[in-house]
Amino acid sequence: MACGPSSSASAPIRGSSSSSPRPTSPLARPCTPGGSGYCKYGWSKYAAPSGRCATFLEFGNIESPMYARLRHFLSTIYTRMQVKPSTQPIIVVLPLCHSDDTESARASRKQYKDTLYSVLFDMNVPAVCAVDQAVLALYAAKRTSGIVVNIGFNATSIVPIFQGRVMHEIGVETVGQGALKLTGFLKELMQQRNITFESLYTVRTIKEKLCYVAADYEAEKRKDTQASCEVDGEGWFTLSEERFKTAEILFQPQIGGVRAMGLHKAVSLCMDHCYNSEVFGDDNWYKTVVLSGGSSCLPGLSERLEKELRELLPAHISEGIRVIPPPFGTDSAWFGAKMISNVSTFTEAWCIKKKQFRQKTRRNGPSFVNVWML
């Protein structure tokens, strides 16, 4: 959950005091509760998310029905924010349905979406808005068209978006590695040097503090890149070539023993598909690439990706390419939700209400999907 339109009557939802003014802005969520990383929640009035928590996958017994787990998860968020579900609309982010998904995977996402709507409306939420995380990241960069490269927890998605709509007909490219793979590779490199650490969390912290993307991998290996950082409770850690070798698997997956397409090749393939689609007269809409996801904040990533794309693509496609770092860091999607939820027509233009959902569910059956909201 994340945010919604703010008003002068809004107040922070903090502490246990029951005398706090009741917020009048809707909730929003720039990260899906069904994701594999973590969830952020808060109000659009504030400058950052109010809090973070585990996703619904970590709530309840794995064998419990999805409805029960989602209900537990959402109830926990509302309790932490000290707000009644019936008072505010909510923005939620749903998993992107990739073009190469199996039928069972697509059916699972549809079931998840239907269940999420059912839970929220059963909790008397007045209106729900569902937006893809990639679209929110694009909005955060103040764009409505472009390609979003979302480096997620387990995978990376390359999503073409035109005027706020995911172009499924062009194709969403996926690379089977994400933040977890980067952290795991750094762990292996540290173990090879007999560097001891307490947990994977320690390795992730070191990755965030010391790692970066080399502009030229071979040239970087000839430099002195040693640097150190401190991890609370564990002391100091020193890395050298591990600092840039970790992120290099995004471009050269084979050095990490990964069988996957390099990030630059996946993005160039998406751009080539956009160019060849000839759906629109203006072929520049896809030349803006926006990075999103925690690992996309690694220093040097945007410059390296832009360089690789210019070298890989023909001039008529590469000319004018611009790769933009996450505009608000790890919270970019949250800020995208904040932006749309502050639009004056938010509830009417972006949301679906309980009555509409029930009517369409009866009309289309339990697999009802609001394509227009994806």
UniProtKB/TrEMBL annotation:
CDD domains: ASKHA_NBD_AtArp8-like. InterPro entries: Actin (IPR004000), ATPase_NBD (IPR043129). It holds the Pfam family Actin. Coiled coil: none annotated. Residues 1-29 are annotated as: Disordered. Belongs to the actin family. PANTHER family: ACTIN. This is Actin-related protein 8.
